Amino acid sequence: MTLTNRHLVLRSRPTGMVAPSDVEVIESPVPVIGEGEALVRTNLVAIDAAVRTWLNDQPGYLPPVEIGETVRAGTVGEVIESHCDAYEVGDVVTTFGGFSEYSVCRDDIFTTVVGRRSLGTADIDRAELLAVFGSTGATAYFGMHDIGRPQPGETVVVSAAAGATGSVAGQIAKAAGARVVGIAGSDEKCSVVVAEFGFDSCINYRSEDLNVALRQHCPDRVDVYFDNVGGPTLNAVLGRLAMNARVVLCGVISSYVTGDHPGPSNYVQLLARRARMEGFNTLDHWDRYGEAEAALRRLVDSGQLRYRSQVFEGLERSVDALNALFEGTNIGKTMLRP
Ligand SMILES: NC(=O)c1ccc[n+]([C@@H]2O[C@H](COP(=O)([O-])OP(=O)(O)OC[C@H]3O[C@@H](n4cnc5c(N)ncnc54)[C@H](OP(=O)(O)O)[C@@H]3O)[C@@H](O)[C@H]2O)c1
């Protein structure tokens, strides 16, 4: 019997937020796998900010999704058929399965075995995996551990602090002994950032003057800034850097929808404060996934790392799920069960 696959394809490139007419849920036969391939049934789709950038017609670190193609996204799923030595039936994998009930993977950097039924390690909380141990947690770990390198007593600022990456990044810095200040877009988010994620304080950038608030919340200036948003927020924090500060350029979500990247005039503070600003891409460090996973596991087990997740049910909710990140309505990791 031929199984049916439901998946979300791109019909037109969005201008601004994704419109329902930009995408369509369609049905097609489940792919027949060839030699070197495995078939994965998707459990959860990760709603990452990068998905929106792949819908634009500009090449980034991955090519744009073509019109008519399944919308690309990171996923966690289970191998149900394999013609590839790297994967066994029953393996739990993270892969780029896209907004799709089924996908095909190969033995490459995009697919990682995170549990194996034959070894008794497949009983994994899939939502926790995407929220903490998958690419979200690894991004926070690589950015904070390799570039930010917070020291005890230093002041660390994190933007999009209530979001998936920011909430984990701030907790990593807190566990390293730093004083951690979040920046988020509502009073509710700021409360969660302090009460649940354990930051020392949080600035609501929508209701407060960010320059004034940064002086109040960071009296000793900013040693590490983990930047998820770019734009005016980046500019304001650059104006408050301490000597030898490190700015971790993780993402620029404030301009993913407009495609406009205004330069930060305060970049001269990098010179004045002998500071460093460095971008990174988690995929470049994927061979160290085990190191990130182990470090994050220690923090979760010791109660130093908490997470939140929100699951949208059904491919029909894809547009709502994607836009939530850009409307700022999400707290923690956003995901979708196809
Ligand atoms: N370098 C890498 O390898 C890598 C890997 C993964 C993710 N990232 C980056 O990490 C960042 C966070 O991604 P995520 O998936 O974890 O999303 P997220 O933080 O869970 O959600 C995005 C958040 O960004 C904030 N935001 C949205 N539009 C904004 C705007 N115009 N100005 C300021 N803030 C805005 C919103 O929070 P507020 O309500 O607080 O504004 C929203 O909740 C993104 O920039 C993403 O590209 C980088």
Question: Quick summary of this structure?
Answer:
This protein has 338 residues and is of the alpha/beta class. It has helices at 50-54, 126-133, 135-148, 164-175, 187-195, 210-217, 231-238, 268-272, 289-301, 318-327; strands at 4-10, 23-29, 37-46, 75-82, 91-95, 102-106, 112-116, 155-159, 179-184, 201-204, 222-227, 241-249, 276-279, 309-313, 333-337. The strands form three sheets. Strands 3, 4, 5, 6, 7, 14 and 15 form a seven-stranded mixed sheet that branches.
CATH architecture of the largest domain: Alpha-Beta Complex
Beta content comes to 25-35%
Largest sheet: 7 strands, mixed
Q: Alpha-carbon distance between the termini?
A: 21 Å
State the helicity in percent bands: 25-40%
CATH topology of the largest domain: Quinone Oxidoreductase, Chain A, domain 1
Shape: globular
Listed once per kind, the bound small molecules are: NADP nicotinamide-adenine-dinucleotide phosphate
Cα-atom radius of gyration: 20 Å
Question: By CATH's scheme, which homologous superfamily of the largest domain applies?
Answer: Medium-chain alcohol dehydrogenases, catalytic domain
SSE class: alpha/beta
Mean pLDDT over the residues: 96
Number of helices: 10
Total strands: 15
CATH C-level class of the largest domain is: Alpha Beta
Give the SSE string.
EEEHEEEEHHEHEHEHEHEHEHEHE
Uncertain spans = none
- What is the domain total for the residues? 2
